[in-house]
Amino acid sequence: MKTIVGGGLAGLIAAHAWPQATVLEAAQAPAPSHRALLRFRSDAVARLTGIEFKKVRVNKGIWFDGSFIGPNIRAANLYSQKVLGSVGDRSIWNLDAVDRYIAPPDFYEQLIQSVGSRIMWGVQADFHGMHNKPFVSTAPMPVALGNLRRDTFLPPGIPEFKRKGIRVRRWELKDANVFQTVYYPEHVTTLYRASITGNTLIAEFADMPTAPINPSEQYGLHEIERSFGIDLGRAKELERVDQKFGKIEPIPDDLRKEIMFWMTQTCGIYSLGRFATWRNILLDDVVSDIDVIKRLARRSTNYDLRKA
Ligand SMILES: Cc1cc2nc3c(=O)[nH]c(=O)nc-3n(C[C@H](O)[C@H](O)[C@H](O)COP(=O)(O)OP(=O)(O)OC[C@H]3O[C@@H](n4cnc5c(N)ncnc54)[C@H](O)[C@@H]3O)c2cc1C
């Protein structure tokens, strides 16, 4: 593979799997797009990129109506509606302590450095003009389709791609070194999850409010203090960012695969990453998807592509 479109985390990880590939990134300069909590289920990304991760044990809890509760149907459904806007299965069913891998805080910067001059900044890839050579795209599926729509055939039933923006706030805590996550299913606040990673507290809100003072968010901060037993007044706020592509709402799986198949078959585009494949995956899955793409690219008959 000679070209990777997109220099986000998926594109930069992919650049380690295809060490000769050029990365085309639309942004003019490096800017980390992921500010929410970042944990990995395995060390697959660490092994591929050569960046050392730390293995930690994470404790989890659900905070509801002023106390910790066990998982139940009401909490799970409220949480899912808050995060995705629909009732579906989310991870709050399992509260067992889990082993996770943590990337260093400058993970993105380290990736940028190791991919180096292979990244071409400020290049808006024209998908239509790249048809003669296969390439990997990490650009969001609706962006890729929009780019191709100009004069190419599109499969029928292109769906509406719905996504929800999120707000992420970070603090540095004094004298903390724990790995904990609390879920907040109640709709009285937009806060849905808060996590402490070492001494960094990350709070995620299911909204990008426009008003400067947001009572629902304010209430969430109060709930963080009560659930974690900490005083945010003693913490240093590091940043407050809004992420336009937060959670994505799934589209029917058959259609999703049909779109990806069509893009590969007619345009030589191999989709990689959460937004390109339009499914709520973690970056561990990107590594296994890279293996699938390598296999498909080697023997890309229609039959093989359809099986993927
Ligand atoms: C709240 C939240 C929590 C998460 N938690 C975790 C976690 O704990 N662990 C984990 O592994 N993952 C997690 N994720 C997922 C992870 O954030 C994403 O998988 C990852 O950030 C997506 O990166 P990406 O490179 O696929 O997409 P993006 O970051 O969107 O990168 C795509 C890039 O393509 C560029 N682009 C688009 N169109 C073009 C074009 N035509 N030409 C050139 N460039 C173009 C864009 O500028 C962009 O830089 C989480 C996500 C969210 C929202």
Brief characterization of the structure:
The protein has 308 residues and is of the alpha/beta class. It is built from 9 helices and 14 strands.
Low-confidence stretches: none
Query: What overall form do the CA principal axes indicate?
Result: globular
Largest sheet: 9 strands, mixed
The helix content is 25-40%
Relative strand content: 25-35%
Bound ligand species: flavin-adenine dinucleotide
The mean pLDDT is 90
Number of helices: 9
Properties at a glance:
globular; 308 residues; 9 helices; 14 strands; binds flavin-adenine dinucleotide; alpha/beta; nine-stranded mixed sheet; five-stranded parallel sheet
Polypeptide structure, described:
The chain is an alpha/beta fold and 308 residues long. 31% of the residues lie in helices and 26% in strands. The chain contains 9 helices and 14 strands. The protein has helices at 9-17, 44-49, 73-84, 107-115, 141-148, 215-228, 253-267, 283-298, 302-307; strands at residues 3-5, 22-25, 39-40, 54-64, 67-69, 98-102, 119-121, 135-137, 163-172, 178-183, 191-198, 200-205, 236-248, 269-271. The radius of gyration is 20 Å and the shape is globular. The model has no long low-confidence stretch (mean pLDDT 90). Residues 5-11, 24-27, 33-34, 36-40, 123-125, 138-139, 143, 147, 166, 204, 245-247, 273-275, 282-283 line the site of flavin-adenine dinucleotide (FAD).
